Amino acid sequence: xxxxxxxxxxxxxxxxxxxxxxxxxxxxxxxxxxxxxxxxxxxxxxxxxxxxxxxxxxxxxxxxxxxxxxxxxxxxxxxxxxxxxxxxxxxxxxxxxxxxxxxxxxxxxxxxxxxxxxxxxxxxxxxxxxxxxxxxxxxxxxxxxxxxxxxxxxxxxxxxxxxxxxxxxxxxxxxxxxxxxxxxxxxxxxxxxxxxxxxxxxxxxxxxxxxxxxxxxxxxxxxxxxxxxxxxxxxxxxxxxxxxxxxxxxxxxxxxxxxxxxxxxxxxxxxxxxxxxxxxxxxxxxxxxxxxxxxxxxxxxxxxxxxxxxxxxxxxxxxxxxxxxxxxxxxxxxxxxxxxxxxxxxxxxxxxxxxxxxxxxxxxxxxxxxxxxxxxxxxxxxxxxxxxxxxxxxxxxxxxxxxxxxxxxxxxxxxxxxxxxxxxxxxxxxxxxxxxxxxxxxxxxxxxxxxxxxxxxxxxxxxxxx
Length: 466
Known about the structure:
The protein is of the alpha/beta class. It is about 40% helix and about 15% strand. The strands form 3 sheets. It has a 7-stranded mixed beta sheet, sandwiched between helices. A 4-stranded mixed beta sheet has the order 1-2-3-13. Residues about 1-20 and about 205-215 have low confidence and may be disordered. GO terms for molecular function: identical protein binding; pyridoxal phosphate binding; transaminase activity. Belongs to the class-III pyridoxal-phosphate-dependent aminotransferase family.
């Protein structure tokens, strides 16, 4: 009797659970619930994805697949759900999900540090690590380290930079006003120097000046002159703790800093005892054909910030530097509950293994050159529309002539691309598309994407009657 009475509620519970699970699995249900996300979160698409693999994201409800040349904004560098990364996550999930770094030591973190030391870090000149969750958090901690080390207050950043959306990092961000609008006054002590954006440089019109690939070009060094003027007018070297730079501007337009500029910046930091911080959140882990973009210039930063592609989709970030730049931070001044999470560290180990074993750096270089060549074909085909093709490896941009195409042209191209099942992103205050496929992308996928892009430019041109 007792059993029969208990079984009816149990059957009812099973029915409700099955019904709820079925409802929550439906795309219409998910879309309805997503409406309750904060309105400040923008959405590029209106479909629900249940799975992704390699270079594609799938909309199973409509039996469609999208070629993803966004990589979650430079996160899934190894492609979606790379088997080696998935295996590393699965193996770790049954052992330890979280071991707080202040309390226990865990194997995935130790293994990751070993792999980073062996594979990544500039001839072992950077040897000490700190792990966090996001790029913004890592940037903030790097700034704290620099201030602890130098006992100075001020920081220099560059025009067009993006370092995050927290109060401190949006104070360092100058790529778009939307990231800081309505939040003044911001963190004090931040000073902005011009970035060597060759396409918009005042010296670009000089016949003797050559802009182009940053490894081959010779920077006019006008931005360095402005930086030295800033030292005389806004913050003296003696009160400047750090110079923080993206070796390739991200949100600012995918603009590589010239080699000569980076080398001079290193010399200035050495001369004045300023900490050189490289923000490689978006440029790291093979995106430019090297593990880190700083390797192209031969410049070793004092502190290097990493995130995004480090764990192929799991939240993990870090700062690496020479021990002397970190040992001045008092015990307890740096930390975080989830920093160096065991599962995320395992994913990062799997990511490095996949990159190494499958030659993804070489592929990023080879396919980057090929993609850039195809994009230059588009530039030649549309000389009145396309002003610049630039970038490094598979971190490339197409900038349209803003004065000719008008506001919103790049967004129109991206929207047209979505109709043709290609995911693209815009960037910068100028009319610019950023193109960031997985670093193991195939030639066939590159050709598909470029053909679609060419078609979408034609469509956008027709729509606004250019």
